[in-house]
Design brief:
Elements: E1 4-13, E2 16-26, E3 31-35, H1 42-50, E4 57-62, E5 65-66, E6 78-81, H2 93-103, H3 108-117, H4 133-146, E7 151-155, H5 163-178, E8 182-186, H6 190-196, E9 199-204, E10 207-213
Length: about 220
């Protein structure tokens, strides 16, 4: 079974069909890039897969869970990073990561590993409220990895990161997929998807209008970083 299987999915935001009949399959070990203009439905599709957006019509399964019947049981197996960090302002970087790992049932050292991976050790004692926008973005991504998820759902994951942070994220995603993980991400940055060798799924007006494999490049150029 694919990790994600969606057929003719319709999702409404009020009366507006943010998704108007989307078909999508994602196999284990894939990196899938959701491309398309603003308002195309990319974020809504990620939220549907995460179980945060109800399905109005069609079918959607994630890890063989039927999201029309159950939008919660699969959530421990995935991590979603949107535009908000959902971290606690009064907790430090280390405390936020520890909390996320415990909530997901991950091993305690997973939080420490994620903190080191994203270069957050020097900020371990700093509260979330005292972080810059780029540091908050790193924390949000580290939190996703602290959950020890099988599926990562990332909405514009490179936004707010400096060149080193972007390169680090790409390396981390490659290693995650090499170890059997699966990634679905939205981005307006085609160069990042090219570096990752993602499969492009283009969405316009709430429907998929095309899909193709993006050939990976060998190195990060200054322009792409």
């Amino acid at each position: 079974m694919p990790v994600v299987s969606i057929r003719q999915a319709v999702c409404l935001l009020g009366r507006f069909p943010a998704l108007a009949g989307v078909d999508l399959e994602v196999d284990a070990g894939e990196i899938v890039w959701l491309a398309g203009p603003n308002g195309a439905g990319k974020t809504t599709l990620l939220r549907l897969i995460a179980g945060l957006q109800p399905l109005h019509r069609g079918t959607a399964t994630v890890f063989d869970f039927d999201l029309e019947r159950d939008r919660r049981s699969h959530r421990r197996r995935l991590a979603f990073v949107g535009h908000e960090t959902f971290a606690y302002d009064d907790l430090s970087v280390a405390e936020n990561l520890d909390f996320a790992a415990r909530a997901a049932g991950s091993a305690p050292d997973r939080a420490v590993e994620a903190r080191r991976r994203f270069g957050l050790d020097p900020l371990a004692a700093v509260r979330h409220a005292g972080l810059s926008a780029g540091q908050r973005r790193r924390l949000a991504l580290a939190t996703a990895f602290a959950r020890d998820a099988e599926l990562l759902l990332l909405d514009e994951p490179h936004a707010g990161l400096d060149a080193d942070g972007r390169a680090l994220l790409d390396d981390t995603l490659r290693a995650f997929v090499a170890n059997g993980g699966t990634v679905v991400f939205s981005s307006h940055e085609s160069d990042r998807a090219t570096l990752l060798g993602a499969r492009e799924v283009r969405i316009v007006g709430g429907v998929v209008v095309g899909a193709e494999r993006v050939a990976p490049t060998e190195r990060v150029t200054e322009a792409s970083r």
